[in-house]
Design goal:
Shape: globular
Pfam family, one: GmrSD_N
Largest sheet: 6 strands, mixed
InterPro entries: GmrSD_C, GmrSD_N
Helix content: 55-70%
Number of domains: 4
Low-confidence stretches: 298-310, 313-324
Organism: Peribacillus simplex
Number of strands: 10
Mean pLDDT: 89
Protein name: DUF262 domain-containing protein
Distance between the termini: 62 Å
Strand content: 5-15%
């Protein structure tokens, strides 16, 4: 392995007129936040002019230098390098405002380069997901259409900090940034060496996310095979990153592995479990030095506390231990990951062609059914009718709502849904129902808990419940959809606050209206289901001594039956909350039932 390490100031790193840093398409979006921006800015600001600051290492995959612009693939250092350009652009713009044109030009020479055609080009080219946004940012064009707001937020953060400096401090900061701030650039000529070095300098990934380690592991191995394999695996990984845009990729890998291995996978074991799965699945894996560590599948090590918590691990362990992997090529393995990521993205963002499926996936999001995605990754790759998928989604809705309302332990859910993957397509609905019933609250327990359940902090769950009540009221056959998103509001009939001066000015004196023990009773019942309804817009009411009557005038304008029914009540106090909660609890048992 030939490595060329060079310690460079920022002036030296970005000052070469014939180099351009390319962030590969397979890299994730720019994602640094305020902590990293603040650390970088302050580290430089606090330097004395005799001191220096080491920004860290960047790893470049290089080729033979030629006339014109030479492109260096940035294997490691994407976030640091991008952040540097945001800071430099903020400085450049600041100097422009101060009419310090010479300094503005100096900084621009670090942000741009020219080839033989003498056309100005950006010194840093971001990956596919961010490059269009970055180009708009650098040109100050269509800023309001930029999707990755981290780019804008980072620039604004640095501009705010620079605005706090007087001219002397600003000039000093600029000097320390470009002359006293250093990075160690490691140039490597071969892809296989670059990926191996990436793993080494990051201490085997302890400081990186599981996704970063998995990416490097896959690309590193494929680079050892041949260039064609590397390019195909890179292509699949690029599509995977695009499919998961806006989603935590570590979540995908944890839940994908749980689905494949049919057991619960924790965040701390993602890397080890992925490698084990990889070595058991990929033909070419036998050529890796690490293969001997995974040649004989390890016995499943399950924490005793986890076993006690899930009650289903024996069944899952058996299913996993007896499974046999049909080995495939690394190219096909990468394609499997890509295909699963596409399904996962469609599940999380509700992007299927079937609108009804998307509606039920949205319901699962409102209920907070994240663990169910372990099984859904598998379900949506099966060749079964959409009608069956819809029935299964409804079963999961019922299952998840009952468990949440009854406050069952969430730690069991990963194992429960991983176990569902073993269900065959034949009689799939009946078999899923049978498995879920083992962990299903009874009608009596659900009714009692539903009446008492505090929906505070779970407003979307309450909205889902009320929407379902509304559909039942109008005998909907799947043809009607309530206004969704932020346009449909969850309305507290008795307001959330009744004792403050502001609440009394806005809603009227509910404290007097509710009568004896109003504060105590309000605290106990304000977030129960009986105190909620749905409304399409903010109420326009006038505070009065009978605040409910003023609300009723607005409720009469609503097209939502659940809300219009409130107009039949002469008053609405704690007793009415109890009565509606009792009524809704009885209805809930009917609607969310197997």
């Amino acid at each position: 392995m030939k490595i060329t390490p060079t310690t460079l100031s920022i002036n030296q790193l970005l000052g070469s007129g014939n180099e351009q840093f390319i962030i590969p398409a397979y890299q994730r979006r720019y994602s640094w936040g305020e902590k990293q921006w603040s650390d970088l800015f302050n580290d430089i600001k606090l330097l004395s002019q005799q001191d220096s600051h080491l920004l860290g290492t960047i790893l470049c995959l290089t080729s033979n230098y030629a006339v014109g612009i030479n492109q260096l693939e940035l294997v490691d250092g994407q976030q640091r390098t991008t952040t540097l350009t945001l800071l430099l652009k903020a400085l450049s713009d600041k100097f422009t405002k101060l009419k310090l044109d010479e300094l503005h030009k100096e900084i621009n020479s670090l942000l741009y380069c020219k080839g033989l055609d003498r056309v100005l080009k950006r010194k840093v080219i971001l990956g596919d997901l961010d490059n269009l946004d970055y180009e708009k940012f650098m040109k100050n064009e269509d800023i309001n259409t930029i999707k990755n707001q981290k780019i804008i937020e980072g620039y604004n953060f640095f501009m705010q900090k620079l605005n706090e400096l007087d001219l002397t401090e600003l000039l000093e900061y600029h000097y320390k940034l470009v002359n006293n701030t250093y990075t160690i650039r490691l140039d490597v000529g071969n892809a296989k060496d670059a990926y191996k070095l990436f793993e080494t300098i990051n201490n085997r990934g302890l400081s990186l996310s599981p996704t970063d380690i998995i990416k490097n592991f896959l690309l590193g191995h494929s680079s050892l095979i041949d260039d064609n394999t590397l390019e195909k695996v890179k292509g699949s990984w690029t599509e995977l990153i695009i499919n998961l845009d806006g989603i935590k990729t570590d979540d995908f890998f944890r839940q994908y592995l749980s689905s494949q291995l049919k057991r619960k996978i924790t965040g701390s074991t993602i890397i080890d479990e992925f490698k084990k799965y990889y070595f058991e699945s990929v033909i070419e894996a036998e050529n890796l030095n690490e293969f001997s560590q995974y040649e004989h599948p390890r016995s499943l090590e399950t924490d005793e506390e986890e076993l006690e918590e899930t009650h289903v691990d024996d069944e899952i362990v058996s299913a996993t231990a007896n499974s046999e992997h049909h080995k495939i090529s690394i190219i096909d393995f990468a394609k499997r990951l890509r295909d699963a990521s596409k399904i996962y993205g469609q599940i999380r963002n509700q992007l299927f062609t079937n609108v009804n499926i998307n509606n039920h996936l949205n319901n699962l999001t409102k209920i907070k059914s994240f663990p169910s995605y372990i099984f859904l990754i598998d379900l949506f790759q099966r060749n079964i009718e959409d009608t069956k998928k819809l029935e299964i989604l409804k079963l999961i809705e019922t299952f998840m709502l009952r468990r949440h309302i009854c406050e069952y332990r969430t730690g069991e859910l990963d194992a429960i849904f991983a176990n569902l993957v073993s269900v065959e397509n034949e009689n799939i609905i009946e078999n899923i129902k049978e498995k879920l019933l083992k962990h299903f609250p009874s009608d009596n327990e659900f009714r009692d808990k539903f009446y008492r359940y505090n929906f505070r902090g779970n407003e979307n769950r309450a909205k889902y419940v009320l929407e379902t009540f509304e559909y039942d009221l109008i005998k909907d056959q799947g043809e009607y959809v309530l206004t969704s998103g932020g346009e449909l509001h969850l309305e507290h009939i008795i307001p959330q606050k009744i004792t403050t001066k502001k609440s009394k000015e806005e809603f009227g004196n509910w404290e007097i209206y509710l009568g004896t023990n109003a504060k105590e009773q309000h605290m106990k019942y304000v977030n129960r289901i009986g105190n909620f309804t749905l409304i399409a817009k903010k109420l326009n009411i006038i505070a009065s001594n009978n605040p409910y009557k003023n609300k009723v005038k607005e409720y009469q304008k609503s097209n939502i039956h659940l809300t219009k029914m409130l107009t039949n009540l002469d008053e609405f106090k704690i007793q009415q909350v109890k009565d509606r909660s009792t009524e809704f609890a009885t209805k809930a048992v009917q609607l969310w039932s197997f």
